[in-house]
């Protein structure tokens, strides 16, 4: 399968900060890849390398078979950065025209606006849009030039549920027609809803690169919860929370945890063991030490 974007051992430093540490990643044609990681993991830095806004300190970055700094390659991609500043006095349709004019191959304006639920807003000035409407416009603009590959940095941050679903539909329809997408998200349900492949990044390194299902299986974590006043030291706990009387433990080995809980003699009730969500899998992958309540 054709590789549309690639890093080979890419490292990026900002002074003393090691934002990316020898990251090797291929984005292949037709993929929808979710980049998942906590704040400061290096997700935006990786996107900035791919789209040519930053250069790697060492290593190689390729975009559409060439250098990300080549304008010809850049015309083949679409980008929505984490933050965008759109001119307040321009109308939505004017901004779409302005952005589209940079690309040889354009999506018809009406079609683009309809795809992202913006068709009723074409004549509205950007200054009069809500935060959610602005964000949808910023994402729609990434698709204006009929790109082969789109990079979306936290596309749905700040959107309500309905606006988020509209955006997802727009992204899905692009992908269904063969488009390739790399998106970052803090919303785990977003990655689960959209992506086939998840790349988990933390501390500038790729911790996992697999299907959503496989990432869960790799860590095989379970949520064990029960009511208890006091909690003994237990093995294999990678995350812990207390909600009133209840204790919620995320563990890699629920059987052993329950055995040890019983052995400890601690009094507990209402034991529940639930399957993992991606969030729990992520927690297990990124946590370095056991957490204690
Ligand atoms: N221009 C910069 N100058 C100095 N340090 C930077 C710069 N940009 C990013 N960093 C640092 O590099 C690391 C990675 O940041 P990056 O923005 O790539 O993470 P992220 O995963 O996108 O985080 P978030 O989810 O919070 O957006 C962080 O420690 C950040 O503080």
UniProtKB/TrEMBL annotation:
InterPro entries: AAA+_ATPase, ABC_transporter-like_ATP-bd, ABC_transporter-like_CS, ABC_transporter_ATP-binding, P-loop_NTPase. Keywords: Antibiotic resistance, ATP-binding, Nucleotide-binding, Transport. It is found in: Cell membrane. It is a peripheral membrane protein. GO terms for biological process: response to antibiotic. The keyword Transport applies. Coiled coil: none annotated. The keyword ATP-binding applies. GO terms for molecular function: ATP binding; ATP hydrolysis activity. One of its GO terms (cellular component) is plasma membrane. Pfam families: ABC_tran. It comes from the Bacteria. Residues 5-228 form the ABC transporter domain. CDD domains: ABC_DR_subfamily_A (cd03230). PANTHER family: ABC TRANSPORTER ATP-BINDING PROTEIN. This is ABC transporter ATP-binding protein.
